[in-house]
Design a protein that fits this description.
The complex is a heterodimer of chains A (478) and B (361).
Chain A lengths: L8 H11 L4 E2 L2 H6 L13 E3 L4 H14 L3 E4 L16 E4 L6 E5 L4 E4 L5 H9 L3 E2 L12 H7 L6 H4 L6 E7 L5 E2 L14 H5 L8 E8 L1 E2 L3 E9 L2 H13 L6 E5 L1 H10 L8 E9 L1 H17 L4 E4 L3 H12 L1 H6 L4 E4 L2 E2 L5 H15 L5 E7 L4 E8 L4 H19 L20 H20 L26
Parallel strand pairs in A: 2-4, 3-4
Antiparallel strand pairs in A: 1-2, 5-6, 6-10, 7-11, 8-9, 8-10, 12-14, 12-15, 13-14, 13-18, 16-19, 17-19, 18-19
Chain B lengths: L10 H5 L7 H12 L8 H8 L6 H5 L6 H14 L6 H12 L26 E4 L1 H6 L2 H13 L4 E3 L9 H6 L2 H18 L3 E4 L2 H15 L6 E4 H10 L10 E6 L12 H8 L4 E4 L18 H5 L1 H16 L5 E4 L2 H13 L6 E3 H6 L1
Parallel strand pairs in B: 1-2, 1-3, 3-4, 5-6, 5-7, 7-8
Classes of the chains: A alpha+beta (478), B alpha/beta (361).
Chain lengths: 478, 361
């Protein structure tokens, strides 16, 4: 590698001068706590720095450029693709102290937040004012807005409400070279620049560090109802989803769980329901409209001859069904020691085929104890194959990385899908970008990265701009 | 899973927003010690483990059901075995050893809360355990319970000066060897009385007797162990007691050790609702979402981080006042003490009642 500098005492003293010494740590305990997220891999930073203002972030990045020290921004560390893991060590830029809700404008339906605000905390605040921020990733109790913007997070409500980028009006961000920019506009429409806002959204902390976000809000719906269906197989579930989408009704939620996942999830929330492929549908809006939508959906779903069909008759029942879906991953964590949730998308009509191919991966690998289950957002074709194994067994851990390869080569790409719908490239998927997009786009994305970050100090060897592959580090953790 | 869901509402993170101070961070530090990634527990690790208020929010929040609070208590026991504990523990241990309570109050004054004229039974069906906080600081809790039991026509007694530490503070702080000795003494003391039921108004004592004694020490008390809110609910349902009218808007604060630790949420509410004229408000952060009052683990947090404990209590009082309630009710003498300090800090004149006291009011 050779192009990076060392974290000298001079650099450390300057960092302390920027944020004050109590916001800098080289304690091994803090470095350990900056080395993980919700993923199997770990990479330890060399120093943790906690800024509280945009100006501090700017000075830190300027210094990092001068000394050629890699910088990895980190929110709450809820990513599942290694987005905030410092693969080259360097500075872990912990953004959690920048967690203010700065401005709320009910008339213009906007809120301005710092990146460390947690999604559910924001929604608790907005609910008291009759609004909500609609992206709803499963990690919302922990995920920060900055992380959601960096990842372009989706979630259960994406079919109706879109993803994070559809709700960001403007950003304040610090470039890797330290300049502060403010792409976007407080207005819903503006075409006076290249859409740098959307370029930064989903850039996984590789093009800029986000320091403020102007979000567009949605009024809280009057009513929200749900219905649950269990089908014999994924084919029936998919056909039902396609028919629902074609009916003119756009549900707020259109989710599915395969037999393994639904069994675990129903047990987790104490629901005694038959085995099969579960489809959960939610509708929100004006009360009369919701009632009509649920009725329409119910009639469509019944045509698929489900073995179980229910419209939630109370708020408690509705919440129970929704909590079963949200509990998919924790429920599976009670089935296996290690649970790794992956992410890919395929066209909705190809979901049955995708599930069939995913289901065959464990038998292809032939490693005892290594299995897979699937759940996801059937309305958008976004699947979350979840590998169940024991990472303490070397053969099973190795099988996981081989399974990823099969997931992209045998499933996502051949079925005209994408290697990631929500989780991002992170560390795990960089080698497959070329497979999905070809050489030209692969190089173009790297050139964009270099245009923003000529010294490649911001979250290097990660995300869309890479570069790839990640070089091996001798003697570095792990 | 390292999902990080436990971070946001952890009260410790509210004071010191570093990953190492979050439940996930503490667990990973313990894991690092077990995996030998850390060769030994430093002062920093000790500080992080003792910064936890043992409110168990993380346990209830954890989608994978990790028993974080038990892991942290076990971690503290490990630190005790390595003599890596906060300096404040010395005084607490001395107080418990010399006086039978962490407050350093004289043993012979422990039973002073007993109201005059109350007759204790020779063959009681109920043994009332006041606990250190109700014996010395929130005496009205214990006194009210005595009068309620008398009004219900039940045969009861209490140990008075013979009562000592239940062991809760020692267990929370990690001094399990000392706690076990006390548990063994208490078993003998409590069972000798011959009562069928052990009733306490202190959730910390309640959890210690019903949960920690069997789990940590294999000591099972031969009595039914009941929190006073549960007994009050039973007595109301059996028409043995009936409160008088009290026109008051109240909000109930769920104590951590009664709520999140032991899932007792409804009995206190039923008791409150049984009082004619009382309007019970609910704060959105109630039941399992209830914020810690700041006392933290039978007061163990407030002994080591008093200013932060008061700050936490003030935050909670502010939250609860937002419901429009005229008074705060809880079912824990530690919460009463802590919330009163919080109200004082805010210069708020809002009354804070323990449940038996409100009932008697």
């Amino acid at each position: 590698m050779g192009k990076y500098g060392r974290l000298t005492q001079a650099a450390v003293s300057k960092l302390e001068g920027i944020v004050s010494p109590e916001n800098v740590s080289r304690r091994i305990e803090d470095l350990i706590c900056g080395s993980y997220e919700a993923v199997l891999l770990k990479y330890r930073p060399d120093i943790i720095v906690v800024p509280k203002t945009t100006e501090q972030v700017s000075k830190i990045l300027q210094l990092a450029n001068r000394y050629r020290i890699p910088v990895t921004p980190r929110g709450a560390g809820t990513s599942v693709a290694g987005n905030s893991l410092p693969v080259l060590g360097g500075i872990c830029l912990d953004m959690c102290a920048m967690n203010g809700i700065l401005e709320f404008d009910a008339e213009n339906q906007m809120v301005v937040v710092e990146p460390g605000v947690v999604c559910d905390t924001l929604n608790d605040y907005l609910a008291s004012h009759g609004f909500f921020f609609s992206p709803d990733p499963a990690s919302s109790p922990g995920a920060t807005i900055g992380g959601m913007v960096a990842n372009n997070s989706g979630g259960n409500r994406a079919l109706k409400y879109g993803v994070t980028r559809d709700h960001v009006l403007w950003l304040e961000a610090v470039l890797p070279t330290g300049e502060i920019i403010k792409p976007g506009s407080k207005t819903i429409k503006s075409v006076s620049s290249y859409d740098l806002t959307r370029l930064l959204i989903g850039s996984e902390g590789t093009l800029a560090v986000i320091t403020k976000v102007g979000l567009r809000l949605t009024p809280l719906p009057e009513a929200y109802s749900a219905c649950l269906y269990i089908f014999k197989d994924i084919g029936d579930s998919t056909e039902t989803a396609v028919r629902i989408k074609s009916s003119g009704t756009i549900p707020a939620m259109l989710e599915f769980m395969d037999e393994t996942t639904s069994k675990a999830a129903f047990e987790y929330v104490n629901l005694d329901l038959p085995k099969g492929c579960a489809v959960l549908i939610g509708c929100d809006g004006h009360r009369e409209a919701v009632e009509r939508e649920i009725e329409t959906i119910h009639n469509i779903a019944l045509k698929g001859e489900p073995i179980f069909a229910a419209k939630a008759s109370s708020t408690e029942e509705r919440d129970r069904y929704i909590s079963a879906r949200k509990a998919a991953l924790p429920a599976l964590s009670k089935v296996a020691t290690t649970v790794c949730m992956e992410d890919l998308t395929v066209p909705v009509t190809r979901i049955p085929e995708a599930c069939g191919r995913i289901g065959k991966i464990p038998s292809k690998l032939g490693v005892p104890g290594f299995t897979v289950s699937i759940f996801g957002h059937i309305g958008e074709g976004n699947l979350h194959p979840t590998f169940l194994f024991d990472e303490r067994e070397p053969t099973q851990k190795e099988a996981f990385f081989k399974a990823l390869d099969l997931l992209y080569r045998d499933v996502a790409i051949p079925l005209s899908g994408s290697i990631t719908g929500e989780h991002g490239i992170g560390i795990l998927r960089g080698d497959y970008i070329k497979l999905e997009y070809g050489e030209k786009m692969f190089k173009l994305m790297h050139e964009i990265k270099m245009a923003f970050d000529p010294n490649m100090i911001l979250n290097p060897y990660k995300g869309k701009g890479g570069p790839w592959p990640l070089p091996k580090r001798k003697g570095r953790f792990p | 899973m390292k999902c990080g869901f436990c971070r946001e509402l952890c009260p410790a993170i509210g004071f010191y927003n570093w990953e190492a101070n979050s439940p996930r961070g503490r667990l990973q530090l313990l894991k690092a010690l077990m995996d030998r990634e850390l060769r030994s527990a430093s002062t920093y690790v000790s500080d992080r483990l003792y910064f936890c208020m043992t409110c168990a929010y993380c346990f209830r929040r954890c989608p994978a059901g990790v028993k974080t609070h038990e892991a942290f208590e076990a971690g503290r026991a490990m630190l005790v075995s390595q003599s890596k504990t906060p300096k404040e523990h010395g005084k607490l241990l001395e107080n418990i050893s010399r006086f039978g309570n962490p407050l350093g109050e004289p043993r012979e004054r422990r039973g002073d809360w007993l109201p005059s004229g109350v007759e204790l039974s020779d063959k009681p069906e109920i043994l009332y355990w006041a606990g250190c906080m109700a014996s010395y600081r929130v005496k009205e809790t214990a006194a009210s319970m005595m009068r309620i039991l008398e009004a219900a026509g039940l045969g009861f007694t209490t140990l008075g000066d013979e009562e000592g530490e239940c062991g809760s503070v020692l267990i929370r702080m990690g001094h399990w060897t000392e706690a076990k000795k006390i548990a063994e003494e208490n078993k003998k003391k409590l069972e000798e009385v011959g009562a069928k039921m052990l009733v306490t108004s202190c959730p910390a004592c309640f959890k210690t007797f019903i949960n920690d004694y069997p789990k940590l020490f294999g000591i099972n008390l031969k009595l039914e162990i009941v929190h006073s809110s549960v007994l009050l609910e039973r007595l109301i349902d059996a028409h043995k007691i009936a409160p008088l009218r009290l026109n008051l808007k109240v909000v109930y604060h769920d104590p951590c050790y009664l709520g999140r630790h032991l899932n007792v949420y409804d009995p206190p509410r039923e008791v409150i609702k049984a009082i004619p004229g009382v309007d019970l408000k609910e704060h959105p952060k109630s039941r399992w979402l209830s914020a810690c009052c700041g006392a933290g683990g039978a007061g163990s947090f407030k002994y080591t981080h008093e200013n932060l404990a008061i700050g936490q209590a003030a935050k909670r009082v502010e939250q609860l006042k937002g419901t429009g309630a005229e008074a705060i009710v809880t079912a824990c003498p530690f919460c009463v003490m802590s919330l009163r300090k919080g109200a004082e800090e805010l210069e708020e004149d809002i009354p804070i009642y323990d449940l038996p006291v409100l009932f008697e009011e």
